[in-house]
Amino acid sequence: MSFQITRVISSPSSSTTVPSTLILAMLPPDRWCEDDLVIAHVCNDLKQSSGPWETTLLASHPGNRLETMSQEIEIGLGKKGRLGYALDDVAIVPSRRTRDPEDVSTSWQIDAYEFDVPVIGAPMDSVTSPATAIAMGKMGALGVLDLEGLWTRYEDPTPLLDEIAGLPADQATERIQQIYAEPVKPELITQRLHEIRAAGVTVAGALSPQRTQQFYSTVVDAGVDLFVIRGTVVSAEHVSSGQEPLNLKKFIYDLDVPVIVGGASNYTAALHLMRTGAAGVLVGFGGGAVSATRQTIGVQAPMATAIADVAEARRDYMDESGGRYVQVIADGGMGDSGSFVKALALGADAVMLGAPLARATEAPGKGTHWGSEARHQTLPRGYRTTVGTVGPLEQVLFGPSHQADGKTNFIGALKRAMASTGYVDVKNFQRCGMVVNPYSAR
């Protein structure tokens, strides 16, 4: 039987409290358990209807916050799984108040750095080159360069980018492995970051957790503004029997540069990453359009649930830390403007885009797209795919659109959704109503 439990949690914040309220939960009384988080009691007037028991639960103290717990489904004897939702499974609900799209603000800020739009170009060679990072910066977005990509392995990677774009699908992964076997050169890291800085935009670069200790001093000395540590799965507590693992908390504390770290896909992992002192946490595994983590290692994160979970971890971490706010950045699986908008509505402060920006005519992948997962030498967890081109980067971000496919005018779509729900900025837009409608887009 599928059911939903409602629990009541005391909250010190008056902004999140409600009066004592009757709550209906479809749950037989013998399945209701009280623990230190639950402040509720079962009323005496239990009744049995044509379906499951209807149990009326009364919050016993005024001023308690109501929170809905997640559904768990029995996979088999002794094993349950949580029900998670993809972005296609949810939708935004307009409110009673609307406003003009011209009156909303799409700006966001991380640490001391302000941006006009909540868009981050993913650190993927098919998306972000020094030139496209500069272009994104001048348009009010942020481009993150992959500091283990072709731009730091080769003096001129253009011929290799052209080659990858032209490869048959069945040969692409093996050839990508060969091309990326060339070592990363510290002097090229410095050169590429200097190119971006010289253009006067915010400088951001990404390393994997495995390479961070090796190259971080080069990156910092080159004048990076935002340091991104990005992997398929990044934890605050990595255990290794080999080399000394990266101590994220100590690393971030000692580094005089804001750090964005991820990916995290659940509440607990995100909360621990926030406790390291990170300025931002990436949600998801990145490379949604080119990721094969589910097929290769059985790992997947339904993005709607993951974003909402991490946003909740941010709220609890704010209470725990005395008000420190950590930016939540959705990473991967935002193939169209509708998904982009829903990610922000679910609680993300910004979105890291891959495939949508790879469709720009300026993108280095020339209509193809791949991520760092595809270059692993023994177990590639991604592939190169064809995404096509739809127009210049400016059109992808700001329009105009000439097709109703969600591939261009991402910011126009965001402004329209914010206007339809009556919210004036992205932070308040996170409060909008949402509905679950599973599989409607499939």
Automatic annotation (TrEMBL):
InterPro entries: Aldolase_TIM, IMP_DH, IMP_DH-rel2, IMP_DH_GMPRt. One of its GO terms (biological process) is GTP biosynthetic process. One of its GO terms (molecular function) is IMP dehydrogenase activity. Keywords: NAD, Oxidoreductase. Residues 84-368 form the IMP dehydrogenase/GMP reductase domain. Gene3D superfamilies: Aldolase class I. Belongs to the IMPDH/GMPR family. This is IMP dehydrogenase family protein.
